[in-house]
Known about the structure:
With 128 residues, the protein is an all-alpha fold. It is built from 5 helices and no strands.
Amino acid sequence: MKDKKEQIRSLKVAFFTTELDFTTNEAEKFWPLYNTFDDNQFELRHNKMKAFSRRMNDGSLDKITEKEATYFLSQIEDTEEELFLLRKKFMQNVKSVLPAVKIVKLKKAEEDFNRKLLQQYRNKNLKK
């Protein structure tokens, strides 16, 4: 999984660099901020949602109690709020590094990259 994550990170660096046309100074300041944000975001999603994901995928979701469902909903809400605050902090930090136009383009580049990655994944699975 770590190799896949590094491979995706390399593809993302290349994609963002092309899409956002970073100056050398921007790139030097941006990538440490973005990588920290991206790592923290991954950790939040992965660790906080692990129990919920396991439950969703093992077929036992049909047997979930109201109490367990309430707990999972609370966990989902907390994780979503933490992700929102993480993104908000990242945006505040990146404003000192990139002009507003590039920050808006960054949002689009993230969406385009994720869409492209998902499409490649689908195409790979169709060929199997």
